[in-house]
Amino acid sequence: MISHHIGLYIEQNLKAKKWEAKDLASISGLSASDISKYRSGTVAKLKAEIFYKIYKAFGDSCEKATKVVYPDLNLKLDKYIPKARNEFGQFMSQFETIENSIEEIATKTGIDENRLKDLYYRKAALEAFELLLIEKAVGKKQGKLFEDFYK
């Protein structure tokens, strides 16, 4: 698990905007209780949707928020090398159109393939850092999948 600094991000922005927590709660649509938990650092996992709502409420870009919230997040991807195929496998590859498979995204991002399956097929909560890595893996601009999925 990758640690986040959402509390620091909230504090800095509340001060800069001269807001109170209730202002952030009102604009973001999050409860005052949730804001308090994230602000105090008592929540270990930062859900992608929460991250999105908070940085949008402050009027920030995903890139700017990420620099504060995940200062140590390595967004460099590993290289994906498909498994070697035999002669028939090579022949059949001409009929395949798969791009950005779970296996490929898992390899590039370092997110466990089983974790991705939980995100894709079950009711697992998507963490902000996971979506940041997935965006990078599929070649999208930082914040694009947040916008498309949560808007």
Provide a descriptive summary of the structure in words.
This protein has 151 residues and is an all-alpha fold. It folds into two domains: 64 residues, lambda repressor-like DNA-binding domains (434 Repressor (Amino-terminal Domain), Orthogonal Bundle), CATH 1.10.260; 54 residues, no CATH class. Helices cover 58% and strands 0% of the residues. The protein has ten helices and no strands. The longest helix is centred in the N-terminal third of the chain and has 12 residues. The two termini are 26 Å apart. The model has no long low-confidence stretch (mean pLDDT 94).
Blueprint of the fold:
Layout lengths: L5 H12 L3 H8 L3 H9 L7 H10 L4 H8 L17 H6 L9 H8 L3 H9 L6 H10 L6 H7 L1
Helix pairs in contact: 2-3, 4-9, 7-9
Overview features:
2 domains, 151 residues, mainly alpha, single chain, 434 Repressor (Amino-terminal Domain)
Quick one: CATH superfamily of the largest domain? lambda repressor-like DNA-binding domains
> How many structural domains does the protein architecture include?
2
Q: What structural class do helix, strand and pairing data support?
A: mainly alpha
Our count of helices gives 10
Question: CATH fold name of the largest domain, please?
Answer: 434 Repressor (Amino-terminal Domain)
Highest-level CATH class of the largest domain: Mainly Alpha
Q: How much helical structure, as a percent, in the residues? A: 55-70%
Mean pLDDT figure: 94
Radius of gyration: 18 Å
Q: Any low-confidence stretches, pLDDT <50, length ≥5? A: none
Tell me the CATH architecture of the largest domain: Orthogonal Bundle
Largest sheet properties:
none
The secondary-structure element order is: HHHHHHHHHH
